[in-house]
From TrEMBL:
Annotated N-acetyltransferase domain residues: 23-166
Top-rank taxon, per record: Bacteria
Upper lineage: Bacteria, Bacillati, Bacillota, Bacillota incertae sedis, Candidatus Caccosoma
Pfam family, one: Acetyltransf_3
GO molecular function: acyltransferase activity, transferring groups other than amino-acyl groups
UniProt-recorded name of the protein: GNAT family N-acetyltransferase
Record-linked InterPro entries: Acyl_CoA_acyltransferase (IPR016181), GNAT_dom (IPR000182), N-acetyltransferase (IPR051531)
Organism, as annotated: Candidatus Caccosoma faecigallinarum
Amino acid sequence: MLQRQKINMNKGLGAPHFFTNRLYIRPIEWKDIDDFFNVCSQSEVTQYLTFNPHEYLSDTHRVIENMMRAYSMGQSVNFAIVLKSTNHLIGSASLTFNYVNRSAEVGYLLDAKYWNQGYMSEAIQALIEVAFNYYRVEFLYAKHIVENIASQKIIEKMHFKKIRVQ
């Protein structure tokens, strides 16, 4: 459960930092590049995503640069999912905004060695609260590749309603 009393504003950026029992969730920063590279270089992590596993740190640099550009333009916010016990990034979660219908798409990825331990459900539950209470979106949605059963389970666990299959 999100610990509301610990929400802080990131000065200058305006994106919240928030905590769960095991996680610290904050905007992605350049200091995350090595940990993020380790996650994004895993073929099992990127199997159902729109990019191939990162081979070079420059691949990750480009992705973080694009995340920061999209944030500065108000298109999306990308959060680092940091394990409190180690202070290492273990994944990321994002909100991509649609201002026309006041909605946001939820996206996420997680280091394979942390799968099936409830970390992503914990992070997404907190992100949902932030989306509605901080960003004031009216509608959230998530997409997944049909074959990605793990992602489907997270979406179902978070009580998203199935709208359609493409």
